[in-house]
Amino acid sequence: MSNEKSVRQRKGYSPAQYIHIIITLLLMFGFGYLPTFSTLTPVGMKLLGLFLGVIYGYSTCEVIWPSLFAFIAFGLSGYTDMNGAIASMLGGSTVFQIITQYFTAGAIVIYGFGKWFIRWSLTKKIFRGKPIFYTWCFMFIFMWTSIVISQIPMALLLYAIWNDIADSCGYDKKSTFRYYGFGGILLSLMMGGAMIPYKSWQLGLASTWQQVTGGNINLGLMFLITGICGTLIITAYVLLGARLFKVDFSTMEAFDVEKLGEESKHLRPRTKRILVVYLITMLLAIFSGTFLNNPLSDFLNNTLTAGGLYCVCSALLMVIPSGEGDGQAAIHFNDIKHSDSAVSWPVILMCAVTIPLATALTNESTGVLPWLTGIFSPIFEGRSPVFILVFTIIVMLILTNVGSNIAFGGAMIPVVSPFVIASGMNPVVAGAALIWMANMGLVLPGASAPASIFHGRSEIPDAGLRTKIVLFSAALLLIISIVVFSLAYLVTA
Questions:
Q1: Residues 313, 278: contact at Cβ < 8 Å?
Q2: Model confidence over 304-352: pLDDT tens digits?
Q3: Sign of CA dihedral 50, 52, 57, 59
Q4: Which residues, listed in sequence order, are joined to residue 321 by a DSSP beta bridge?
Q5: Is there a contact between 209 and 202 (Cβ–Cβ < 8 Å)?
């Protein structure tokens, strides 16, 4: 999941936290009253201040209250009224899709698919005596699994399993084996979650890109490009990282899968039914986003819509019997309602706020787009499509590690898109690169929820070594993504 900020438990606010709160509110409600400049209108100033406040609040505070204040500020901006603000933020199809999708994706984790899959995949004879290959498969398999299953619960589960592996093998607490494994899990899950923007906030960015450029993100093409990137990056991480960090694999074969418990030996009938229906729904979404000119895709895209498709998925699973003889449906709503890992309201609110805001910033009444275009004109103007593509990848990796990946991703879309269109390059490749890199907030603890979880793990307390691991990961991401996306542009040009 792509990516809400974690909220640290505190006994009270520190002085610095009060300062962050004040700055956030001043940007949201006070920036708009400053004198206009360049091409910005008074409405544009208010929306720009609101957007800056959202980015700052998400990056330094938390998600919930900045989102609620954003509803108020958007309704008072003059761009729309309060009813319109609430309707556009909470009433969007994308937000509805995210909510219904969380019901199903959360249920997959709650009902034990993760533990079963780990036991099934890690007890194969093919791994005996091949610890590096074992490690590569571990990260590679769960990179693909995170396309379907939420990153946060999967990360928590895999960190616990990797720590069990380390303990079983006798690695001490300072061993690079733990840091190397935890870093690989973070990297693989983040890449898997970003490969296809068919859900959560990645879907929001794809929808915004479509609205701004007028062209759909071809999910099949993006999946091909990002799948190649992910495979190359994981391979480089496993092989080069083992050498760079001098990882000792000599005793890794001692892992005891019995630690996963008896319940991990079999996949529950309820989980099988949920997984089948969810996978069918996901495949329909990918099909309709890839093959556009056919009656089925036309119905799914324009009549039912993605939000309706995932609503059907969740509704069916709340009606279909579980198959466990308990007189309940496959998904029991109370199980989801009471689970923190099932539905992430921070992600829902972030999408609800940032999607309409990013769209509003491109409206002619704000004057924001001509101003942003003017800032980047000296850099982009007259440059080749490859330069624009590479620059987008570099800037997005930096920005997403400084602040909110959702907010900065949305902010860069109206900046990059005019130059992409003017250059004549395939907008699908540029949009895919932007969305892919926007997900890679892994260097700083506040860059994303997965990064916060990684940096907060007590099993890897050495901050210096953690930083070296994530910087190595970021370097691989940058180099390989630039090469693969550039080649993709040349092929599709």
A1: yes
A2: 887 888 889 989 999 999 999 888 999 888 777 655 555 667 767 877 8
A3: positive
A4: 329
A5: no
- Rounded to 5°, the CA angle 216-218-222 comes to 130
Identity of the residue numbered 405? N
Give the pair of three-digit tokens for residue 199. 């859900």
Task: Decide if 346 contacts 4 (C-beta within 8 A).
Answer: yes
CA 209 to chain centre: 16
> In this structure, what token pair is assigned to residue 37?
């400049």
Angle at 68 between CA 64 and CA 72, to 5 degrees: 165
Q: How many residues does the chain have?
A: 493
Is 464's pLDDT higher than 50? yes
One-letter amino acid at 106 equals: G
Q: Return the H-helix or E-strand segment holding 324.
A: none
pLDDT of residue 176: 93
CA distance 195 to 197: 7
Q: How far apart are CA 345 and CA 358, in angstroms?
A: 20
For 97-112, what is the mean pLDDT? Answer: 75
Half-sphere exposure of 370 (CA within 13 A, CB side): 11
Average pLDDT over residues 13-25: 90
Cα 361-362-368 angle, rounded to 5 deg: 65
User: Helix (H, G, I), strand (E, B), or coil: what is residue 275?
Assistant: helix
The single-letter code of the amino acid at 68 is L
Q: Select from 62, 58, 54 the least CA-distant residue to 9.
A: 62
